[in-house]
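This week, study the protein below.
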Amino acid sequence: MSSAAISALNSDEYSTATGIDADSRAGDEGASDDGAAGAAGVLQNMVLDSDDVQGFLTTLSQHAADQLSGRDHEVRCGITLLRPRAAETVASSDNLARTMDEVQYQFDEGPCLTAARTGQITQVHDVTSDSRWPQYLQAIAETGVRSILAVPIPLEGDSRCALNLYSPSTRAFTDEAVRDAERFAQETSVTLRLAVRIAQLTDAQGHLKEAMRSRTIIDLAAVVGSVSDQPPTSTIRAIRRAHHSFQHSLRWRTSEIAVRSPSNSSREEGGLTSGCGCGLCPRSHS
């Protein structure tokens, strides 16, 4: 039956012509919706249970390896995240995948970085015969990996990400496997955007705290300088030296308390003696 003829049929006529009733279609759509909702719930829980974006990506890479491995073959997974003004974030499902990603960053080239940077699916059917990235692929071949699939994960703004799959078999990633990886990347996209946004806000908060700390030093220098008639730059340097000295003394006092605690009383026999007794000078060995 032609597409024009099918489009001319109403719902009941189409069901009769194809042998598919409305209840069956509704059941299939409902199952699909339930599956999507379940996957979204799993991903959201990953974000909630992770301390930072690195932890989330590590859990996600392990989940991807589990979901995309077939009955007759196992794949290893890595995730590459590139963000402006931030170090690259690399997460892996296991040590082998981590090695693969580290080798790629060593040469700054390869299918995974290409997929992340260009937004295009990049595949290597056989690392021993592919002519792209020769140094990288030669190093990869020594690990036993034979085929690679890299699928971009859509993000917003200037952030880039790719899902990296590794297999010990040549031509391991069939058309169906590629479609499954694409589907996984799409399902992951929204949740990963949320994780990246949280990371950006966390970074911004850290920058704001540092800016406020610097502003406090500058304001304090202005006050002290106005009283002591010292140039502002000299006063700022003096305050920063004092702050550094205070932090050093505080760290030493904390470690001393830990050393002299009852649980560590046996360590006092090592001969620690007091300094000048001012409470700020470090202790010295007798």
DSSP finds nine helices and seven strands in the chain. The domain at 31-203 is CATH 3.30.450.80 (Beta-Lactamase). The radius of gyration is 29 Å.
